[in-house]
Amino acid sequence: MRKLFHALGNFLILGGLTLLLLAYGPVIYDEIWYWVKTQKHQEISLDLSAEAGVQDSVFARLLSYKPIRLQPVDENFGIVIEKLGVNAPIKKDIPVTNEKAYNQALKEGVAHASVSDYPSEEPGNVYLFAHSALNFWDLGKYAKVFNLLRKLEIGDTIHIFYEGKDYTYEVMAKEVYKGWNTYPLTRTTIEPLLTLQTCDPPGTTLNRLVVTAKLISVN
User: Fold this and answer.
1) Are 6 and 65 within one domain?
2) Judgement on whether residues 11 and 106 belong to the same structural domain of the protein
3) Per-residue pLDDT tens for 65-86?
4) Both 2 and 55 in a single domain?
5) Do 59 and 92 fall within a single domain?
6) What does the DSSP 8-state code read for residue 95?
7) For residue range 135-185, what is the model confidence (pLDDT) as tens digits?
8) pTM of the predicted model, to two decimals?
9) How far apart are CA 44 and CA 159, in angstroms?
10) What are phi and psi of 131, to 5 degrees?
11) Are 64 and 149 within one domain?
12) Which end of the chain has less Cβ packing within 10 Å, N or C?
């Protein structure tokens, strides 16, 4: 009987460690990749020539020292954050109060709040939100798209592609809000702003990490 309980205990411990690894695997992978990229001084840029860089892939990110060139996955509405290796489509006009609608949208990319503005040179607030989640098997391939959002610093750039144009924003603030604080979504703006929001820490609903950026160019 003692052997049985010992085996059962080992099984439960192994099962718990396996579930923990599965849950935190995406976060751990992203942290390792970001550390490796930093140590290699590897650049990630838009539209580098074939001679100057390689296409994005797991191999290129972890093993290659060459610059990685990103081609936007959606130039009609998409987001590229070179520093974080983010390249994702944006699903427009998603109601923030409709859980079923935004959960479906977040499986397909980054969500654009229906009550916010579209990219423009006019004053407004483009509000985007996405997962920094752990249960990727349930939430889809974009469950971890904003896992590294906290790595952004003031002065970093974010590209929003909208209707074929590249709207480039520069980070001007990074804040953490308790629970669901609507201020970043409803605030009055006097210039073209971009707001990115995700959960903080990843996989929880304790806080909201909010990054604010201002428009600096349109190409």
Assistant:
1) no
2) no
3) 888 888 899 999 999 999 999 9
4) no
5) no
6) -
7) 555 566 787 889 899 999 999 999 999 999 999 999 999 999 887 777 888
8) 0.84
9) 13
10) -75, 150
11) no
12) N
